[in-house]
Amino acid sequence: MLTVTTVNVNGLRAAAKKGFLPWLAETDADVICLQEVRAEPDQLPAGAREPDGWHTVHAPAAAKGRAGVSLYTRREPERVQVGFGSAEFDISGRYVEADLPGVTVASLYLPSGDVGTDRQDEKERFMAEFLPYLAALRERAAASGREVLVCGDWNIAHQEADLKNWKANQKKAGFLPEERAWLSRVLDEHDGGYTDVIRTLHPETEGPYSWWSYRGRAFDNDAGWRIDYHMATPGLATRAVKGFVERAASYDTRWSDHAPVTVAYEL
């Protein structure tokens, strides 16, 4: 079995103080993909920077206090790559991948965007560059008999079932028609060629949501968004035996506004 967890930690230093470290000590995951770490490695507590029993790769953003992705693996990676060959985004702390036996696992933090601002333009530029890379990565892996798993905060809810209040969010970043169409291309067998593993495992489910605003009673009412994905090449996706969101028991026990999304793959 290969168990992989992805979670946006909303600042790893803060999460470490709120409960991330006890969660890390108890998890059965073999690989953990983190997003929005928002710290240089030397700013992290030792238990988060180099936890016992884990090999860690941290890819902070050049802009201090922003973005940042990390990978924790039980096995030492055969190869590590930060970025995807983008002149604009390789130093932005948004992508890191590692080769493990038979599979390449990546942690992605896609820009969130904001309609009518430069942030949305940035998101669109990222998507335009990233999709060809995803397709090429899948093709290279297939040629060498490997699978690919790109986990992370994709900041797009793909379908109406992926967010509670979809009608009110149709003109907002994260659920724009053009963003959803782009994610459809990621999943199209003639384009990106990836599979949304959680949706495949839970085809008729509303959600399961992985992010809830801190505002109001979104968490208590389960008024969330499903924006944290396991996107796998089809061969790996067929080996997923269970997938679930590790939703906190209560609002006050959360250590992020996102919850870990975990999938077990039978290799």
From TrEMBL:
SUPFAM superfamilies in alphabetical order: DNase I-like (SSF56219)
One MF term in the entry's GO annotations: double-stranded DNA 3'-5' DNA exonuclease activity
Cofactor: Mg(2+); Mn(2+)
Enzyme Commission code(s) on record: 3.1.11.2
Coiled-coil ranges from the UniProt annotation: none
Name under which the protein is recorded: Exodeoxyribonuclease III
Residue(s) at site: Transition state stabilizer: N155
NCBIfam families to which the protein is assigned, alphabetical: exoDNase_III (TIGR00195), xth (TIGR00633)
Organism: Streptomyces rimosus subsp. rimosus (strain ATCC 10970 / DSM 40260 / JCM 4667 / NRRL 2234)
Similarity remark: Belongs to the DNA repair enzymes AP/ExoA family.
